[in-house]
Amino acid sequence: MKLGYKVDMEKIPEKEEFPSGESVVAVTNLTKKATKSGGWMYTAELTNDDGQKVYDNFVIGHTDPAVVDSFTQRLNRLAKACKIDGIFDDTDQLISKLCVIQVTHDWSKEYGNQPKVKKYLTEKTKIDTEEDDKPF
User: How far apart are CA 75 and CA 57, in angstroms?
Assistant: First the structure.
């Protein structure tokens, strides 16, 4: 069936996936959203130097206290990785802060291959060198 328009495939950029492994990112946005189950969560947008984004959700409004505790601890690990000093009591404290994350990729039929924040780190554990980029 004809599309009704023409697409020059040479002009379609390939979507670059957020790289697996450790990355330094900035917290570029943090929003509060409703969940499908009627609760609420924060969604953090984390952006690397190449402008690639990965998102992490923190379900804070939930009926199960264990779920709330788990995600609260995760949000606190993000704050620690961002080197928040003293008291952490406002998500705005995270905006524009740098931190190190470890990223893996999960595949699903619905979303395909998606980057996922595996953990928040207070510093990089792997040193980047030009040697790492050379083929074997």
Answer: 9
Q: What is the pLDDT of residues 20-61, one digit of tens each?
A: 999 999 999 999 999 988 899 999 999 999 999 999 999 999
* Percent of the chain scoring above 90 in pLDDT: 66
The backbone torsions φ and ψ at residue 38, rounded to the nearest 5 degrees and listed phi first, read 100, -5
Cα–Cα distances in angstroms (integers) from residue 57 to residues 12, 34, 115, 127, 131, in the given order: 30, 11, 13, 28, 35
Q: Which residues lie below 8 Å from residue 26, measured CB to CB, with a gap of 6+?
A: 46, 47, 96, 97, 98
128: left (phi over 0), alpha (psi -120 to 50) or beta: beta
Tell me, what's the pLDDT at 55? 96
Count other C-beta atoms under 10 Å from residue 90's C-beta.
Answer: 9
